[in-house]
């Protein structure tokens, strides 16, 4: 292995492990599992984020086209998740490996207590040499609580678990130029923005825009990200061996604390909003320093939140300037708003 990764995430897209009919493609799943097993033998800790539950469900139940869209997704996911996991179990047991199911919703990442509970679970599974297989819990997720797709979920877990690399497997072998060639290495957004087409996959919810957005954000947090054709045999091993496969987003940022990583993914996860005055904004924006927000600088508090929750910060013009972690709840924040001498 060219780069000595100790812990990584492999995200498997819906279209990678389903065929044209939307059903599970077992041979493709098998070749991915074989590569994971090979990496495990080298002592690498791996978390898999896998779509495909609905594809598995399509092979088991038939639902009327007139059925409500959300209900249809819930039923297919509820039935299919069982088959998806059983397929992974059957494939991994051939290599003497155990795997575990972890289902997540967007709300699990909004609450600091839930976040830490999930992190502890992942750490325990990896410590016991068990491969966590994560998917969005489509049974209980509704539109406003859904991830953009599992690329976003993979990014959240990557920042949570401080992995060194994320591999996003799709049908496309990376970022393509107009002539069909692949952009091998990306250092900043300018190198890829002109090449990305605004399209989504056939059965999935995401597309290359989402993958690039997640990859660039992870790179800024010090995490290398690869976009690979997951159906290409040996793509994972080749990429991690240093071969020119897919598109590699180089880690550009310094490693930051887990709390800052959590807050960095806060957009859409916040439970409240605080508005600040003209004096507080330049203090918070000062580069190179982490600053606390004092109640004297707050002009308005919206939402209901508790200590540890993520809150959005808006300036006196109503523009978002950042996110932070609340040190106390919204009731006390409203009580102390605008007052001097109270703690941050």
In short, what is this structure?
With 344 residues, the chain is of the alpha/beta class.
Give structural notes.
- Helices cover 33% and strands 20% of the residues.
- With 344 residues, it is of the alpha/beta class.
- The strands form three sheets. It has an eight-stranded mixed beta sheet with strand order 3-4-2-1-5-9-10-8, with helices on both faces.
- Helix 5 (150-161) runs parallel beside helix 6.
- It is globular.
Q: Which residues sit in consecutive blocks of at least 5 with pLDDT less than 50? A: 197-206
Which strands sit side by side, in order, in the main sheet? Answer: 3-4-2-1-5-9-10-8
Distance between the termini: 47 Å
Range of helix content:
25-40%
Quantity of strands, as a count: 14
Percentage beta strand: 15-25%
Name the overall outline.
globular
Query: What is the alpha-carbon Rg in Å?
Result: 21 Å
Q: Biggest sheet: strands, sense, closure?
A: 8 strands, mixed
Order of helices and strands: EHEHHEHEHEEEEHEHEHEHEEEH
**Can you count the helices?**
10
Rounded average pLDDT: 86
SS class = alpha/beta
């Amino acid at each position: 292995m060219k780069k000595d990764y100790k812990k990584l995430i492999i995200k498997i897209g819906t279209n990678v492990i389903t065929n044209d009919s939307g059903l599970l493609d077992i041979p493709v799943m098998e070749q991915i599992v074989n590569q994971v097993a090979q990496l495990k033998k080298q002592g690498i800790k791996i978390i898999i984020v896998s779509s495909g539950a609905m594809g598995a469900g399509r092979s088991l139940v038939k639902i009327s086209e007139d059925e409500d869209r959300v209900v249809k997704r819930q039923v297919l996911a509820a039935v299919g998740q069982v088959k998806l996991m059983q397929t992974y179990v059957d494939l991994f047991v051939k290599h003497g490996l155990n795997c575990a199911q972890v289902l997540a919703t967007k709300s699990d990442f909004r609450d600091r207590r839930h976040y830490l509970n999930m992190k502890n679970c992942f750490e325990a599974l990896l410590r016991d040499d068990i491969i966590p297989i994560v998917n969005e819990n489509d049974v209980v997720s509704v539109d406003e609580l859904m991830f953009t797709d599992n690329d976003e979920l993979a990014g959240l877990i990557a920042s949570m678990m401080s992995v060194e690399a994320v591999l996003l497997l799709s049908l496309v072998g990376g970022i393509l130029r107009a002539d069909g060639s692949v952009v091998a290495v990306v250092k900043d957004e300018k190198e890829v923005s002109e090449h990305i087409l605004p399209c989504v996959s056939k059965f999935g919810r995401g597309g290359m825009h989402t993958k690039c957005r997640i990859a660039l954000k992870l790179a800024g947090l010090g995490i290398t990200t690869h976009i690979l054709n997951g159906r290409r045999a040996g793509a994972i091993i080749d990429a991690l061996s240093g071969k020119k496969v897919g598109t590699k987003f180089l880690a550009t940022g310094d490693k930051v604390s887990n709390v800052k990583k959590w807050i960095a993914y806060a957009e859409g996860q916040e439970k409240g909003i605080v508005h600040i005055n003209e004096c507080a904004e330049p203090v918070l924006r000062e580069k190179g320093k982490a600053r606390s927000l004092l109640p004297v600088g707050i002009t308005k508090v919206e939402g209901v939140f508790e200590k540890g929750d993520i809150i959005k910060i808006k300036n006196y013009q109503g523009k978002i300037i950042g996110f932070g972690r609340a040190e106390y709840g919204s009731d006390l924040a409203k009580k102390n708003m605008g007052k001097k001498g109270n703690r941050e």
